[in-house]
Design a protein that fits this description.
This protein is an alpha/beta fold. The protein is built from 16 helices and 16 strands. Helix 13 links the parallel strand 13 and strand 14.
Length: about 425
């Protein structure tokens, strides 16, 4: 493997000052509830609000502020996401079977959490797709109450209308105008107007991520997300223009976004870099994309496709593109990734918005052991066992022996006393 360009900076690291700041915000929300949220809205979002909850009439009014093409696009994406999520849900089934031991039945149930909070970030532009990914999937999983939130958007004094419309189409039961670490705290611990949730999902900035880390345990979370990333695996058959724009598509997300190209053909790499420079000048997001590519972009020349595959599996990227001649064969050997895009006509953009699989994905190599948000994120699988008298007899001897080995006499006697009662 030959390194042609390497990332120049570390895109994520823990910051003690950030940890303390977020801790103070969480404590303030726990102590003062809605008053703290209103105070932080003024301080961070620069808006004055009387309440954080968005009333139904405000949601309906948002439709008048969004053009019909955008509403139709949101509905199309929602149906795509819902279709995939419902098919996933159909794979998850309750289990109830006879044990190997007579008189013992064992199994599990698929039970959705009662209540979840979906966080929708507010970036340089509105992000209605993030509202759909969390809320639609939670609803498909069977969550009874889905609360959604997003920070106030500049110029509107509340959540951006397109995001409000997306939240409504997705099926949110409650909507709150709040963001940052304070929103995570409100979902985790509740306030006068916000009920505590069981799980929080959705991407956010470093304050949101740190807050999710701090409340984990008091409430469930989807993941601790780092900067977004893509790894593109290519060979001689790849189109340099496609490769270049896909790398820039990742880079324009954020100055810390990471775009990586691994290719087996040096001529394709050279042509891609020329195209990248040309296309960069055409982008309205040139400043962000240029900084991201300069700081975090990486290019590798692989000696073989086997080496490229091994490298990808080691990196475990959030997004993985496979633009090679034998795309399905190579894709089958990819083991660690958040979401994979297979073929020369499969940019990450489809997954970001409308293809159906969720775009909230594992980053920073965590795809080695985790996955993105899906219906299973919202479903717990508790176990059960039914034991008859005969089953009690059949399990008694090994159970009492284990209890003696592990020094737990009450465990042993909980079985022994039942056996004696049968006599």
């Amino acid at each position: 493997m030959k390194i042609l360009k390497q990332a120049e900076k570390k895109t994520y690291q823990r910051d003690p000052a950030l940890t303390r700041t977020v801790m103070d915000i969480i404590e303030h929300v726990q102590r003062d509830g809605d008053a703290a949220l209103i105070e932080y809205a003024a301080k961070f979002d620069r808006i004055d609000i009387d309440a954080v909850k968005i009333p139904p009439e405000a949601v309906q009014a948002a439709y008048e502020q969004v053009d019909q093409d955008t509403i139709d696009t949101i509905r199309f994406a929602a149906e795509q996401i819902r279709f995939f999520a419902e098919k996933q849900r159909a794979c998850l089934k309750d289990l109830h079977i006879q044990s190997r031991v007579e008189g013992v039945e064992i199994g599990h149930r698929m039970i959705p959490v009662d209540r979840c909070g979906c966080y929708v970030p507010a970036g340089r532009h509105p992000l209605p797709s993030s509202a759909l990914m969390g809320i639609v999937t939670a609803k498909a999983a069977g969550v009874k109450q889905v609360a959604a939130c997003s920070p106030a958007y500049k110029g509107y004094g509340t959540i951006h209308p397109a995001v409000l419309v997306a939240m409504d189409i997705a099926g949110a039961d409650e909507i709150y105008c709040m963001g940052g670490a304070q929103a995570i705290a409100a979902f985790a611990y509740g306030t006068e107007s916000i009920g505590k949730v069981d799980m929080i999902v959705g991407p956010g900035n470093q304050f949101v991520t740190e807050a999710k880390r701090q409340v984990l345990g008091d409430v469930g979370i989807d993941s601790l997300a780092g900067p977004s990333e893509v790894l593109v695996v290519a060979d001689h058959s790849a189109n340099p223009t496609f490769l270049a724009i896909d790398l820039l598509g990742q880079a324009e997300h954020d100055p810390n976004a990471k775009a990586i190209l691994v290719c087996t053909d040096e001529a394709v790499i050279n042509a891609t870099m020329q195209e990248l420079d040309r296309l960069l000048d055409t982008l309205e997001t040139k400043d962000v994309a240029s900084q991201s590519w300069q700081d975090n972009g990486a290019v590798y020349l692989a000696d073989s496709m086997e080496e490229a595959i091994a490298f990808s599996n080691q990196i475990a990227p959030e997004h993985l593109e496979v633009e090679v001649e034998n795309e399905r064969e190579v894709a089958a050997q990819m083991l660690h990734y958040g979401s994979m895009f297979i073929g020369h006509y499969a940019p990450v953009a489809f997954g970001d918005f409308v293809s159906g699989p969720n775009h909230t994905l594992p980053t920073m190599g965590t795809a080695r052991y985790s996955n993105g948000v899906w219906v299973g994120t919202f479903i717990k699988t508790p176990f059960h066992q039914f034991v008859s008298k005969q089953g009690c007899v059949n399990l008694s001897e090994p159970t009492m022996h284990f209890a003696d080995v592990e020094g737990l006499p009450a465990h042993r006697d909980s079985v022994r006393l039942r056996l004696e009662n049968m006599k």
